[in-house]
C-alpha cells in the first residue's frame, strides 16, 4: 500500500483551511445562505433550478418523459444553477432547498407554491402527480426499492469512489481501494438484477431506471470519472444493455441537454423555457448567431 502522510486528528475539528480537491471552493461546514438572491420564476407551472449533473438529469429526463407521454401540466422552466460559482447558496435557492444542492423544484400549479428537494423525492412527487412511471401493481415495491437503493448507494460512487479517484488532491490507495470495491459490488448488484428483468422494477421503465441510469449508466460508459477501464465496466453486460436502451430514448437525449454547460455545444441547453428551445437555443446555435 502507498504511504500517506501521518495525520493525527485534533480533539476538535476546526475549519481553518480549504479541504482541497475539485470542489474545495464551495465546501463549507455550515448551512444557510451566503448572499441574498431571489430565484427567477417563469411562466410554466413547474420551476426547476438545476444543473446537468447525474442528480439534475434524473429530473429533466422525467419531465421530458412526462411531456412525451402527453402530460401538458409537466411543462417546465429549467433555470441554471452554477454550483461551482456558489449559486446554490443564494437565499432564494436555500428557501427552495435548505440543503443547498441541485436539483430543486417548485410547483406553482396549486394555490400555494410547493417546494420539493432531493432528486428521489422529486421523481416520486412527479410520478404521483401525473400517475406515470410508478407502477400501481405488485412491482411498485420493487420500483421504490431500487429508487431508494440509488439514493443510498450513489454517495459511495460519487462522494466516495469518484472523489478519491478523480478529485482528491492526492491519490490515497486505501480510499480508492475501499470505494472501488464497493462500486464494483454495486455494479454487480445491478447486473444480476438486469439479468433477470428488462428494467429495474420489471418489464416497465420507471422512475427507478431514471434515478439509477445517470449515475451507473454514466459509469458503465466510462463518462463518469474516466473510470471505465479501471472498473472494467464492459464486463457488466446487462448493465451495458440497459444503459444503451435507456440512452436511446428521445426524452432521455433531451433531458441530458437541459442545464448542460459542458460537452458538445450542440447538446448544451443552458436553460429550457419552451419545447422549441432544443432546436433554437443550444450553445452551437447561440454562438453561431453571435458570430454572424
Ligand atoms: N441527495 C441529493 C444530492 C444532490 C447533490 O449532491 N447535488 C450536487 C450536484 S450533483 C450539488 O448541488 N452540489 C453542490 C454543493 O454540494 O454545494 C439529491 O439526490 O438531490
Notes on the protein architecture:
Helix content is 45%, strand content 6%. It has 10 helices and 4 strands. Strands 2-1-3-4 form a 4-stranded mixed beta sheet, covered by helices on one side. Helix 5 crosses helix 7. The longest helix has 28 residues. The protein starts with 45 loop residues before the first strand and ends with a helix. 38% of the residues are buried. The protein binds glutathione (GSH).
Summarize the entry for a quick read.
With 292 residues, this protein is of the alpha+beta class. The protein is built from ten helices and four strands. α5 crosses α7.
Bound molecules: glutathione
Output mean pLDDT. Answer: 95
The largest β sheet comes out as:
4 strands, mixed
Look at the helices and sheets and give the structural class: alpha+beta
State the strand order across the main sheet: 2-1-3-4
How many helices? The count is 10
Provide the succession of SSEs: EHEHEEHHHHHHHH
Distance between the termini: 57 Å
Radius of gyration equals 20 Å
Overall outline: globular
Proportion of helical residues:
40-55%
SSE inventory with pairings:
Blueprint: E1 46-50, H1 54-68, E2 76-80, H2 91-96, E3 104-107, E4 114-117, H3 119-130, H4 140-167, H5 173-196, H6 207-220, H7 237-247, H8 250-257, H9 277-280, H10 283-291
Amino acid at each position: 500500500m502507498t504511504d500517506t502522510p501521518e495525520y493525527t486528528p485534533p480533539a476538535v475539528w476546526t475549519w481553518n483551511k480549504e479541504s482541497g480537491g475539485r470542489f474545495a471552493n464551495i465546501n463549507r461546514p455550515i448551512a444557510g445562505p451566503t448572499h441574498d438572491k431571489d430565484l427567477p420564476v417563469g411562466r410554466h407551472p413547474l420551476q426547476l433550478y438545476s444543473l446537468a449533473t447525474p442528480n439534475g438529469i434524473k429530473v429533466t429526463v422525467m419531465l421530458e418523459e412526462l411531456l412525451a407521454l402527453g402530460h401538458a401540466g409537466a411543462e417546465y422552466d429549467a433555470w441554471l444553477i452554477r454550483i461551482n460559482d456558489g449559486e446554490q447558496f443564494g437565499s432564494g435557492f436555500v428557501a427552495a432547498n435548505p440543503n443547498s444542492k441541485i436539483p430543486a423544484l417548485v410547483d406553482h400549479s396549486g394555490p400555494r407554491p410547493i417546494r420539493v428537494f432531493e432528486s428521489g423525492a422529486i421523481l416520486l412527487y412527479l410520478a404521483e402527480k401525473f400517475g406515470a412511471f410508478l407502477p400501481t401493481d405488485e412491482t411498485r415495491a420493487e420500483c421504490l426499492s431500487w429508487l431508494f437503493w440509488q439514493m443510498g448507494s450513489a454517495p459511495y460512487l460519487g462522494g466516495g469512489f469518484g472523489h478519491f479517484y478523480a478529485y482528491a488532491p492526492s491519490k490515497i490507495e486505501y480510499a480508492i481501494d475501499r470505494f472501488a470495491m464497493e462500486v464494483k459490488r454495486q455494479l454487480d448488484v445491478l447486473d444480476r438484477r438486469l439479468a433477470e428483468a428488462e428494467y429495474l422494477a420489471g418489464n416497465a421503465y420507471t422512475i427507478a431506471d431514471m434515478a439509477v441510469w445517470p449515475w451507473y449508466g454514466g459509469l458503465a460508459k466510462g463518462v463518469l470519472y474516466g473510470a471505465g477501464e479501471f472498473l472494467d465496466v464492459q464486463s457488466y453486460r446487462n448493465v451495458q444493455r440497459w444503459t444503451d436502451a435507456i440512452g436511446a430514448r428521445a426524452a432521455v437525449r433531451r433531458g441530458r441537454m437541459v442545464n448542460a454547460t459542458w460537452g458538445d455545444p450542440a447538446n448544451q441547453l443552458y436553460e429550457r423555457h419552451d419545447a422549441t428551445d432544443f432546436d433554437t437555443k443550444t450553445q452551437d446555435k447561440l454562438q453561431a448567431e453571435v458570430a454572424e
